[in-house]
Design brief:
The structure is a single chain. The protein is built from 4 helices and 45 strands. By secondary structure, it is mainly beta. It folds into 2 domains: 111 residues, Immunoglobulins (Immunoglobulin-like, Sandwich); 575 residues, Beta Barrel (Maltoporin, Chain A). The protein has a 22-stranded antiparallel barrel. A 4-stranded antiparallel β-sheet has the order 3-2-5-6, with no helix packed on it.
């Protein structure tokens, strides 16, 4: 009996000991998107004792890495329920044993629920400002007032972004690096931005604005980065989206033509069909997307008065009737080799065809005598193709990855310019042709490893870029205005190896990030030795580009961050292209092969306050740039011709305050207010323009206070209707050698969801009150001109989209 009693006591004590140890078992796992294998944050994870009566045991949400954890769990049989709006609820049986104090359930993969997809966009909209406050992310689908337009038109409604002459400005600077799916492409440019006014917004999923990029990104773009993310369907099985948009612009004549020229475009048509298809089965995901945007546009309608120091006054009009067809397509496959290895191969092809039918009459001050008539056809075709391969290896621990990618891009700019120059004493027909081929190879390796209190990222990138150009002038036998000794051949060669390392450290209250990118650049610009002005040139540099961020989490709703970046803007090939090109009959644009890069130091202090159903974000920023790249206009001879030549000006600075407020006002109304005010200063400088003859230009110091205000109001209405009102005010600002006046516009949009959430109808109108006119004044040493551009801004669009 004593032995039996002692044995029972030992067994009881052992059971109590085992139970006391077993109740501290930690159950963990990671929730990921089944298609993308990317972590999902803030997912509800519930542990239930019995599936039948839903006996609740514990509940948690996943962190920013998609990881969840239940502590102090006891052995037994359970059910794990994982739910997230927009995804199918996932339920699995879980047995918790007592052999180990840790149980890792691995990856829990959630599949998207197509029937909830539209609800995800509307009701689970996350804050656009990232937790690190280094970037802002905006879904294109929520921008109702610009649906069916171009990427440029979509961008103008986003915080911090303005548009001017076909380019975006980020916090008052055009030096923005434009990426597509995280890569530089020929479509948007490898240096200066281009093409944004022709890319259809229907091809875009979302846009990221990265004001403070880490060393992982290329160093160019002093104002920051805009990453355009294309749509990519990812549901299992066969699915996709089709859409069609039609519109009309230039609904009435805003200002009548000067006498004697062809009519300006009115009631201009626009069409944009779009198809995105996806098929996924087991380890293969195939995707295909094609968009075609056709527009007729009154692209420019500028009335200018030019006044010279000798008393001469010239009135002129520059009108562009433009026909544009932009075709873009993307196709590829994801091969999920196994849980740790994925290979993605894709191709992108685009063809942009632009025809500008232009008229430019010149009159005397009283408009009683036509001094000159310039009429032209600019026929330009840009064909681009890109092939990409990306391999990703995931190590056993989550977040530990190795990526290797290869990108090859080819594009051809084929431009033909035919013009008729009518003077009082003669008429001459002339032309010039330009062919520029671009070949770019990018090889990148990126490595990322999570650490105990942070993350380490490092990688290398190599770029080789070659652009041969050939300009051919076709002068008339007599009275030619072409400089026949300035055409010929040139070749741009650029080699850039780069290495980066970036480290992030995090505690409960503090975050710190420090990175360094080191670039070596060797650029050679080889010029035809027969060119009458320029000789071969280029530059070489080996430069460090550091970045740093320190953040303090005041509490769950308030966070403060400080940033520092050093960045560069390298002259693109068009900035140093030696061939004179007519911007209009008497303004000639010329590059400069001696142009040097500009370097910028950026500082920013950001604050984010999380409200109930909203947030407040403020950022105080300051940028200092040395060797500011600009174009300087001078007169080179005794004629009225003005030459715009690329130059490095003096030091410039940009200081500003950006405020973004987002608030859900009620179940119906929500609003987003963006205010950006800045102070621009350009120091005095002096440069020498070599073309067509050597001339010196000295600029006095320029400074101004400017900014913009944007208000977007969104209404969720009964019967599946949504409506949006967007308004933009742009304050006066300085431009090279002058100033641009204030501008204001209002856009409207309405959308109705139909066909059980799979279909969508929308109607919108831009610049409803036809108030957007670009007014600017430019001052040269011997002239000044005042211009008002009444280009097409008012467009009405109707569209339909169906998702299956």
């Amino acid at each position: 009996m004593k032995i039996k009693t002692a044995f029972s006591v030992v067994i009881s004590l052992w059971s109590v000991f085992v139970w006391s140890q077993a109740k501290n078992i930690t159950v963990s796992g990671k929730v990921v998107d089944a298609s993308l294998n990317e972590p999902l944050t803030y997912v509800n994870v519930i542990l239930k004792k019995n599936k039948g009566n839903n006996e609740f045991v514990a509940g948690v949400i996943t962190n920013d890495k998609g990881i969840f954890s239940f502590e102090n769990s006891t052995p037994g049989n359970y059910f794990l329920e994982v739910s997230y709006l927009g995804y199918k609820t996932y339920t699995i049986p879980v047995f918790i044993g007592s052999a180990s104090t840790y149980l890792n359930l691995g990856d829990v993969k959630l599949e998207e629920d197509v029937s909830q997809l539209d609800e995800v966009i509307i009701t689970t909209k996350k804050d656009e400002i990232s937790d690190k406050m280094d970037k802002q992310t905006y879904a294109v689908s929520t921008n109702l007032s610009q649906s069916g337009g171009t990427v440029l038109q979509t961008l103008k409604n986003l915080p911090g972004i303005t548009t001017q002459e076909g380019k975006v400005q980020l916090r008052g600077s055009t030096k923005v690096l434009i990426l597509i799916d995280g890569k530089q492409t020929a479509i948007t440019g490898f240096g200066n931005q281009n093409g944004l006014d022709n890319i259809p917004a229907s091809a875009i999923d979302k846009v990221e604005i990265i004001n403070n990029p880490s060393s992982k990104f290329d160093a160019n773009g002093n104002a920051g980065i805009i990453n355009i993310i294309l749509k990519k369907e990812k549901q299992n099985g066969f699915n996709g989206t089709i859409s069609i948009t039609s519109g009309l612009g230039a609904l009435w004549e805003r200002k009548a033509n000067l006498p004697g020229i062809r009519p300006q475009y009115k009631i201009t048509p626009k069409t944009n069909p779009s198809v995105a298809l996806n098929y996924r089965k087991e380890k293969i995901n195939l995707f295909f997307q094609v968009d075609n945007l056709y527009t007729e546009t009154l692209n420019k309608n500028e009335f200018v008065t030019r006044s010279y120091n000798d008393g001469t006054v010239i009135n002129q009009q520059l009108k562009h009737n433009r026909n544009t067809n932009f075709f873009t397509s993307k196709a590829g496959l994801d091969w999920f080799i196994n849980d740790n290895n994925t290979l993605t191969v894709s191709g992108l092809f685009s063809k942009e065809s632009i025809k500008d039918y232009g008229d430019q009459p010149f009159y005397n001050k009283q408009l009683t005598q036509q001094l000159r008539l310039w009429q032209f056809l600019e026929d330009e075709v840009v064909t681009a193709g890109m092939v990409s391969a990306n391999y990703e290896h995931k190590f056993s621990d989550p977040g530990h990855t190795l990526n290797a990618s290869f990108n090859y891009t080819f594009d051809r700019e084929d431009e033909k310019y035919f013009f008729t120059n009518t003077m009082p004493s003669f008429t001459a027909n002339e032309s010039f042709f330009l062919i520029a081929d671009q070949k770019v190879v990018d090889v990148t390796i990126d490595y990322s490893k999570p650490l105990k209190n942070g993350r380490l990222e490092t990688g290398v990138k190599f770029r080789n870029r070659v652009i041969p150009t050939n300009m051919q002038f076709n002068p008339s036998a007599e009275n030619s205005v072409l400089d026949t000794g300035a055409d010929g051949k040139a070749e741009y060669k650029e080699v850039i190896p780069a290495l980066y390392v970036n480290y992030t450290y995090e505690t409960e209250k503090w975050e710190a990030e420090a990175g360094l990118r080191v670039e070596y650049v060797d650029l050679k610009y080889q010029v035809d030795p027969n060119h009458n002005t320029y000789t071969s040139d280029g530059y070489t540099y080996f430069q460090p580009f550091p970045n740093a961020r320190v953040s303090y989490k005041i509490n769950d709703k308030n966070k403060l961050s400080a940033f520092y970046n050093r960045r560069v803007d390298r002259p693109d090939e068009v900035d140093i292209r030696i061939f004179p090109k007519y911007d209009d009959a008497e303004i000639i644009k010329v590059g400069n092969p001696a142009l040097q890069p500009q370097f910028t130091n950026s500082f920013e202090l950001g604050y984010k306050n999380q409200w109930h159903k909203g947030y407040l974000y403020t950022a105080l920023y300051h940028r200092i740039t040395n060797g500011t790249i600009t174009r300087i206009a001078t007169k080179g001879d005794n004629s009225n011709l003005i030459y715009n030549v690329s130059q490095n000006g003096g030091k410039s600075a940009n200081t500003g305050l950006e405020v973004v407020m987002n608030k859900k006002l009620s179940n119906v109304w929500s609003a987003n207010l963006n205010m950006n005010g800045y102070y621009n200063k350009i120091n005095a400088f002096s440069v020498v323009n070599k073309y067509p003859i050597e001339s010196v230009f000295s600029a006095q110091e320029q400074m101004t206070y400017s900014g913009n205000v944007k208000l977007n109001i969104l209404a969720t209405l009964p019967n599946n209707f949504e409506a949006q009102v967007s308004s933009i005010y742009l304050a006066p600002d300085i431009i090279p050698q002058g100033k641009i006046q204030s501008r204001f516009s209002v856009d409207l949009g309405i959308k109705k969801t139909i066909q059980k959430g799979k279909g969508e109808l929308f109607l919108n109108a831009t610049d409803v009150f036809n108030t957007l006119v670009v007014k600017k004044k430019v001052n040269g040493e011997t002239f000044n001109y005042v211009g008002n551009d009444y280009y097409e801004t008012q467009v009405i669009r109707l569209g339909y989209k169906y998702k299956f």
